[in-house]
Amino acid sequence: MHDYEGFKKKVAEDLIDYMGEGYETYEVKIIPYEKKGRKCDGLSICLPKTVKGRCVMPTLSINELYEDHVQGEDYEEQMRKVAQTMRNGIKMGKRLLPETDYKKAKEKIVFQLVNTVSNEEMLEGIPHREFLDLSVIYRWGIDFSDSGVASVLITNDLMELMGLDEDELFRCARENTMRLLPPVFKDIRDLIGDFMDDGEQLPDLPKGQRMYVITNRYNFAGANAMLFENVLYNIAKEIRSDLLILPASVNELIILSASEEKDPEVLSGIVSEINEYDVEKTDRLSDSVYYYSASTRRIYITSERRMA
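The structure assignment produced for this chain is given below.
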């Protein structure tokens, strides 16, 4: 029995042999991803880049295959099932691709912010651009409903199918995100009040001493509000202060008025602790605290701003 890394390598090496005639030129890819904070590996297959044509990439979890292998499932039988699943996925994809209007997909491309260092491996295979210590990535929103957002990460291959480059993705996402995921700015007291008993009241506080939250109606990728300077400027005008921005997760930001008594290093420690114990790894954005200056209309990492 192989250990996991040995099993992963053998599966990747053997798959094309099990695929059979007509698949000799296909390429096997190992795609890392995270599921509930756990690092996983996806097994995928597609046409080589030297071959022109569209290809859907069916993907299976190597981690789940390995668990079945450890439980005693025969390796050859596993690989026959994997190959059959891949063949079925490719055939279905060939039927679906002509019906997919990638021009219409442009209307549903949106931003998402992720941590650059934590996602280095993933970023190698997808279009992105850097923003402070974060990276802007792109998602194709398949469905927006009361139950949430169903979306697909846009990879380099999918970008090519859409006939776009990264600059065009950025332009589409900038327009679509404000339309499909407009930021929602709330006093955190309003959120807390929803959980209080009737008759209970929170003490009134001046706007400059309150805590606020930015997200959107779906609570999906709400931290991308940092990419819209005009949104931050309007908030700063409303509370009459520069802003300290705490990344609660990839889905929401906490906003405080900036003042001398609020130490960014202390706030960064709080964010770090919350990330460690209360936020799933897949939802963590950063341990940094950001500063928005209404006078310069720029956003900074607080530690870098002090050094400037």
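Interim note for the steering committee: Residues 184-307 form one domain. Residues 110 and 173 are 4 Å apart (CA to CA).
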